[in-house]
Amino acid sequence: MEDDIENPVEEEKLPDTLKIISYNILEGMKNDRANNYNKFVEWVKSHGPDVLALQEANGFNQRQLEQLASRWGHKYVITNLKSTDNFPVALTSKYPLESRRRITLYTSHGAIFARLKNTEINIVTTHLWPQAYWKAVGDGRGDEYRLQEVNINLDSTIRKFPNEKYWLYMGDFNSVNRKDYEPNTTNQSFVVLDEVENAGYTDVIHHLHGYKLNGTANYDFRYPTRRIDFIFGSEAILPKVVKAMPIYDEFTEVYSDHPPMMVQILNK
């Protein structure tokens, strides 16, 4: 008698162009909670990301986020719950994700490091410390803490795997990029994102649309104060970037205090 052989399940083929959105959803999308997240689900489906990187996925454990993500067609979910933190990051995806590391030690809200399966594309999502202080209110060491977090992220990812070339690093950095400012700006601290760029990353929006520091900017950010949400790409992945922009619409103006960032990259 011959052994039965199961037919292998064929994984859905990735598209030639991938759309990735990073979004701080304000305390677990609290403004749509009473509506069972119907508006949020409708919004995600309307933009159709292949991967969604979330910050402030408050109140969702792995199973709960899997249930929510299934409503917008994502069956692959990675959460990063910390017992001492209520503001976790998460990834949801239409396509299989290989979870490589959940970064929690010596960070506030941590990070997730994953790879899109059957590709060389690494995705890192994080949410850095939001306060001006670190150890005690008024100590003025917030940037010092964020710099520590960024270096932990970098040491665990792009610096640890220098032979891997295709990286996207995204999230709510609670820090500003000097390229978004005019030359000789002195009332901002740029040390955190300087470290990110010194590690080999470039903001994908700056890559496509220029920036204020050198007078080439042709973008318009409608932030109330300053931009703190970014998607960075490594040098090798930048030629694959075909579109990058914040998303401003009726939903994002109401349901979070952060506009989402979007990038589209060629998967070939």
Automatic annotation (TrEMBL):
Q: InterPro entries, per this entry?
A: Endo/exonu/phosph_ase_sf (IPR036691), Endo/exonuclease/phosphatase (IPR005135), GPI-anchor_lipid_remodeler (IPR051916)
Q: What Gene3D superfamilies does the record tag this protein with?
A: Endonuclease/exonuclease/phosphatase (3.60.10.10)
Q: Which Pfam family, just one, is annotated for this protein?
A: Exo_endo_phos
Looking at the record, the residues that make up the Endonuclease/exonuclease/phosphatase domain are 21-258
Q: Which PANTHER family match?
A: CALCOFLUOR WHITE HYPERSENSITIVE PROTEIN PRECURSOR (PTHR14859), PGAP2-INTERACTING PROTEIN (PTHR14859:SF1)
Q: What is this protein called?
A: Endonuclease/exonuclease/phosphatase domain-containing protein
Q: Which organism's genome codes for this protein?
A: Sphingobacterium thermophilum
High-level lineage: Bacteria, Pseudomonadati, Bacteroidota, Sphingobacteriia, Sphingobacteriales
